[in-house]
TrEMBL record:
Highest taxon of the lineage: Bacteria
UniProt keyword annotations, A-Z: Isomerase, Manganese, Metal-binding
GO molecular function, one term: isomerase activity
Protein name: L-rhamnose isomerase / sugar isomerase
InterPro entries the record matches: L-rhamnose_isomerase, Xyl_isomerase-like_sf
Organism in which the protein naturally occurs: Parafilimonas terrae
Length: 424
C-alpha cells in the first residue's frame, strides 16, 4: 500500500490553519528557528526490521494481521512510516531474520522509499535450524573454541550482507552470561569474548564501525558478559578506534543515570549508537517517551551538549535507532509514536539555553540551572516538529492520516489476517 502525495497534501491543507496558529505562537519565542527546523529535518531514526510485527512475551504472541511476510514488505512498511513522518529514513536489519537474498533488488527497493541501511545486527542468542553448535551456554564467551568460531563466522557473514546493502556498521548484542554462581569464570568469559570480537573487528571494512551493545540481565539472570557500559567500553577500547559502545535505554539496572553515562561516553569519543525505547522495569521495549519522558529529555540534553562540544553532526555523528517491540499495539502506530517522541525531545533539547546554563553552573546557581532545563522540557514543541515534517513533504499529523487512510485494514487485505513477521 502507498499513500499518495496529493492525499497527504489534502490532509495537510485541512489542518494547515490550526497548525499555522500554533507554529507562529512558538516560533515567536525562538531566536534560531530556521537552524532548529533544519536540524529537525535532517534528523533520521532507523526502524528495526524486527519491530514491524507484533512483539510477543515469553507467554504469548498475539499477531495483529497484515504483518510483513518478507524483507520487501518490511521495507514497504518503513516506507509508509517515512512517507508520513519523513524522519524514519533508515532500516536496521537483523540476520538471519532478514537475509537479503537479492541485495541489489533490496537496495533499489529501499532507495525507492528513501531509506538507507543503518547498523546490521547479528544473532548468536538463538540456535538456527541446521546450525552445527548450540549457543545454549553462550556464543563468543563459550568454553569451546569451535562454538566461538561459529559465532565469529556468523558476524563476518552479517558484515558481508551489510556491505552489499551499503550499511556502515555492525551491532553486536550478546546474550552471553551465566544463570548461576559458579557457572562461569568471569575472566575467561571476558577474554574469550574479547578474542572473538577481535576476530570480527579484523574483518570490518575500513569505513565501518562496530557497536558493542550492553545489557544488565536477561536471558541470563546471574551475570552478563557485556553487562554494563563499563564492560562495553572496555571491549571498545581494547578493540580499537572503529569500536564503540551502543546504549539501549532499557538495558540498565533501575534508576541508572543514563544521561551521565551518555555524557562520559561522548566525552571519550566512544558513544556509537543508540537504541531508543522506554521501560518501567527492565528491557520492556515500550514506546519511546511513554514512561519517563523527562529522563529522555535529560539524555537528549547531554547528547546535544556533548555532540556540540565535539563539533559533531547531530544527524550523522551517531547511529540513531529504535529498539522497541510490543504486543498490544499496531506496530506501525507504535513506531509513529516513538519517532514523534524522539523528535519532540530532540527539539526540546535544542531549545536549552546553553550559555545561560553554563553561567548558572559556574555560579553554583542550582535553581536557575534547573529552571533552564525545565523551561525547555515544558515547552510544547509539537508545532515545531510538525512544521519540519511539513517542509519535508510529510504529514502534519502522521497518526491521524494513518488511521483515516485505514492503513492496517489495507495491509490485512493485501497480506491476510494471519501473517507473522520474523523476529522475537
Ligand atoms: C535485545 C537487544 C538487542 C537485540 C534485540 C533482539 O536489545 O538490540 O538485537 O533484543 O530483538 O534485547
Ligand atoms: Mn537493543
Ligand atoms: Mn533490548
Amino acid at each position: 500500500m502507498n499513500i499518495e502525495q496529493y492525499k497527504l497534501n489534502e490532509y495537510n491543507q485541512s489542518a494547515l490553519k490550526d497548525h499555522q496558529r500554533k507554529f507562529d505562537f512558538i516560533a515567536a519565542d525562538i531566536k534560531s528557528i530556521e537552524a532548529i527546523l533544519q536540524k529537525l529535518i535532517n534528523f533520521q531514526v532507523a526502524i528495526p526490521s524486527w519491530a514491524l510485527g507484533t512483539g510477543g512475551t515469553r507467554f504469548a504472541r498475539f499477531a495483529g494481521g497484515g504483518e510483513p511476510r518478507s524483507l520487501e514488505e518490511k521495507i514497504e512498511d518503513i516506507g509508509l512510516l517515512h512517507a508520513l513522518n519523513k524522519s524514519s529514513g533508515a532500516i536496521s536489519l537483523h540476520i538471519p531474520w532478514d537475509i537479503p537474498e537479492n541485495a541489489a533488488h533490496i537496495k533499489t527497493l529501499a532507495a525507492q522509499h528513501g531509506l538507507k541501511f543503518d547498523a546490521m545486527n547479528s544473532n548468536t542468542f538463538q540456535d538456527q535450524p541446521g546450525q552445527q553448535h548450540s549457543y545454549k551456554f553462550g556464543s563468543m564467551q563459550h568454553v569451546n573454541k569451535a562454538i566461538r568460531k561459529q559465532a565469529v563466522e556468523h558476524n563476518i557473514e552479517v558484515i558481508k550482507y551489510g556491505v552489499e546493502l551499503g550499511s556502515k556498521s555492525l551491532t553486536v548484542w550478546l546474550s552471553d552470561g551465566s544463570c548461576f554462581p559458579g557457572q562461569l569464570n568471569f575472566r575467561k568469559a571476558f577474554q574469550n569474548t574479547l578474542e572473538s570480537l577481535q576476530e570480527v573487528y579484523a574483518a570490518l571494512p575500513g569505513d565501518w564501525k562496530i557497536f558493542v551493545e550492553y545489557k544488565a540481565f536477561e536471558p541470563n539472570f546471574y551475570s552478563t558478559t557485556v553487562g554494563d557500559w563499563g564492560q562495553s567500553f572496555l571491549y571498545a577500547n581494547k578493540l580499537g578506534n572503529k569500536a564503540y559502545t551502543l546504549v539501549d535505554l532499557g538495558h540498565h539496572l533501575p534508576n541508572a543515570n543514563i544521561e551521565q553515562i551518555v555524557a562520559l561516553l561522548l566525552m571519550e569519543g566512544k558513544l556509537g549508537g543508540f537504541h531508543f525505547n522506554d521501560s518501567k522495569y527492565g528491557d520492556d521495549d515500550l514506546t519511546v517517551g511513554s514512561i519517563k519522558p523527562y529522563q529522555l529529555f535529560l539524555i537528549f540534553n547531554e547528547l546535544v551538549e556533548g555532540m556540540d562540544a565535539k563539533g559533531m553532526n547531530h544527524a550523522t555523528g551517531l547511529g540513531w535507532m529504535i529498539d522497541a517491540s510490543h504486543n498490544v499495539k499496531d506496530p506501525l502506530e507504535d513506531l509513529l509514536q516513538s519517532v514523534e517522541a524522539i523528535m519532540i525531545t530532540y527539539a526540546q533539547a535544542l531549545l536549552v539555553d546553553r550559555n545561560k546554563l553554563n553561567e548558572a553552573q559556574n555560579n553554583n546557581d542550582v535553581v536557575t540551572a534547573q529552571e533552564i532545563l525545565q523551561q525547555a522540557f515544558r515547552t510544547d514543541v509539537r508545532a515545531l516538529v510538525a512544521e519540519a515534517r511539513l517542509r519535508s513533504g510529510g504529514a502534519l499529523n502522521p497518526l491521524a492520516v494513518y488511521r483515516s487512510e485505514k492503513v492496517r485494514d489495507n495491509l490485512i487485505k493485501e497480506r491476510g489476517s494471519k501473517t507473522v513477521a520474523t523476529g522475537l
